[in-house]
């Protein structure tokens, strides 16, 4: 066991590694966000973070910067070094070849291709290994990747914007704009860090929605804005009856995936326009949402951002498919005839769904509430 002083130092350097890893929040998909810091004799001699899939991992960048100073040093990594040949060589081998004396990992990698073998490779080479330093912070950074590896599903966030009286649109369908520019900028950042932006036909038809990332609204520095632009999220439209015309702004904004339970015979028409039609089984006359998420995870999707109306958002909620709600609350009343937040018909207080609020903060003149569903006792 490390001494108390060493534990404090380990947490300090791991915090820096996590800070580096966060720089990849917009660009690493489908890979996890990883940072690495190499320390020798109390000095940081190398730093690195994984920028995008197919490029060197965080450890390689840090080792290159450290050079010969890596020998005998301690490497702090936010995720267990990989031990397999993917699009890049194993990082565990790179650390061994560099002669590091100790490796501290925030957590083990649940990827079946790694799953502890990276740490075993290091130990077999005589390198001291420790895991679990700031693990909760490391897990929070890669919720989507971890859920995909551990459960075969992506992490699902539902973004909602409402007035103080819980309304999302006027009775006519008018909804622009409930919140202010700072909140809309925050939504753009949510889109940019997601693997998929998912919506429904009702939203696209009512709002002429494009669901694209608008770089000028991200509010990021030039480096991160450029990174976000290199990996636009996949836009997924749930359109069970293929009601949205191919001439709609949503399709004109770029390639998209359309999930439907209509006849697959329409596939060629969508393919000719650069889109993909995914035919899925029907559940109660609608696209089977769980099967869609399983399919997306199989394609390497880590994080899904749902931006949809009350029907689709309510369907995800009723099926227990939501991991996190991001609710933007505007300081206004929209009245009792306006549309509710979710299509969620509940008759008794005992049926209400409990949420754990994990964050609440002002965003301009609005508020952002981040909440997680609390599993019922019967689950």
Features:
379 residues, alpha/beta, 9-stranded mixed sheet, 5-stranded mixed sheet, globular
The percent range for helix content is 25-40%
Number of strands: 18
Strand content: 15-25%
Shape: globular
Strand line-up of the largest beta sheet = 11-10-9-8-14-6-15-18-17
Number of helices: 13
Uncertain stretches: none
Q: What distance separates the N and C termini?
A: 38 Å
Whole-number mean pLDDT: 90
Based on helices, strands and strand pairing, what is the structural class? Answer: alpha/beta
Gyration radius, in Å: 23 Å
Sheet with the most strands? Answer: 9 strands, mixed
Give the topology, please.
Layout: H1 4-21, E1 35-40, E2 43-49, H2 58-66, E3 74-77, H3 91-98, E4 102-105, H4 117-124, E5 128-131, H5 135-141, H6 143-151, E6 155-163, E7 167-169, H7 181-193, E8 196-200, H8 201-207, H9 222-230, E9 234-238, H10 249-252, E10 256-260, H11 267-271, E11 276-279, E12 282-283, E13 286-287, H12 289-298, E14 303-306, H13 310-318, E15 324-330, E16 339-340, E17 355-363, E18 366-373
Helix pairs in contact: 3-4
